[in-house]
């Protein structure tokens, strides 16, 4: 049992599969254990930067098992079908077949692309996810959503393809640029607001240790976020109900990302502004106390500085809400906190209130 404490494992159970997400420093060295003995060739999908930092450890951990390493250029603009096709051609040139397996080794862009490649290569082969950014560890790699972008929008082509397992090694994040690390922290803070006050309190009260990447604190946060993602996906794989709560901060966050053409803000940073706006909206709607609203806004700013958003035009952001992928039949849904640790999903909010919430958010400061 003691060992289990050092190795939090969270099961994702969906109608078609059950798998583990394991959070442990050093788990990368055990990758071979998670590659089925009867699997054929192993294809690692990664980017050059990740391979430079951590490739030797994955190679070693595969324990002499031959693996083909296929590089993907990375970046949101390359998360496109054409690259998936190129990777599939490369797999065939290297004798990939129905017994092959894919390992996604990188940030969320890599795990989305590798997962989608595995979902459609010869109508589907297994994928083992080894996420290397904080954001991919706490979010993208767990839950089976895979896909690529269209010119008209993000993640518009994709598939649900649950992995064999997700190996989450917090040590890998120590090489992340600080800004990427902070961007991932906003998704952890999101988990606290939607479902776990203890995670929120830890982030609100111990930001210095979190930002200094103190292992005990970071590991607890990662494990907490992965637990929540695993619970939510297990209850609702296809996002017809509970899974929507993961979109807290994303309604306005997505509009901010799109409005700034995905250049000014990292995803987590746009979501951070979105969470501030959602907290104000909840407060304006009478759902959330002013005190909890202020605590959420202050906690977000602890992990800043956020790129400036004060020049954004609220009316343009509101117009974009209607075209978000998550909008159902023209109805914009907001995930709004009722208290820290509990949210509700609401549609049909008056544009006047949304406007006011955005104004307050964009004017907010650390
Ligand atoms: N499938 C899902 O459920 C889901 C959920 C959330 C986000 N996503 C997707 O995830 C993507 C964003 O992921 P991201 O934030 O990880 O960005 P990313 O994959 O672009 O990674 C960020 C940068 O860090 C580099 N990097 C990765 N690991 C590193 C390491 N250990 N050390 C140093 N550098 C490293 C990458 O090469 C890249 O330059 C988006 O495309 C988003 O749509 C998917
Ligand atoms: Zn997100």
Description:
With 366 residues, this protein is α/β, with parallel strands linked by helices. It folds into two domains: 4-175, Rossmann fold (3-Layer(aba) Sandwich), CATH 3.40.50.1970; 178-362, Dehydroquinate synthase-like, alpha domain. Helices cover 46% and strands 17% of the residues. It has 14 helices and eleven strands. It has helices spanning 2-6, 48-61, 81-93, 108-120, 134-140, 178-195, 197-205, 207-211, 215-235, 250-259, 267-284, 290-302, 314-321, 351-363, and strands spanning 9-13, 18-23, 42-46, 67-71, 101-106, 127-131, 145-150, 153-160, 165-168, 333-339, 342-347. The protein has a seven-stranded mixed sheet, with helices on both faces. Helix 3 packs across helix 4 (108-120), helix 4 (108-120) packs across helix 5 and helix 5 packs parallel to helix 6. The longest helix has 21 residues, at 215-235. The radius of gyration is 20 Å and the shape is globular. It starts with a helix and ends with a helix. Residues 1-5 have low confidence and may be disordered. The structure holds nicotinamide-adenine-dinucleotide (NAD) and zinc ion (ZN). Nicotinamide-adenine-dinucleotide (NAD) binds next to helix 2, helix 4, helix 5 and strand 8.
Specify the helix fraction band. 40-55%
Structural class: alpha/beta
What is the tally of helical segments?
Answer: 14
Count of DSSP E strands?
11
- Uncertain spans, ≥5 residues at pLDDT below 50? 1-5
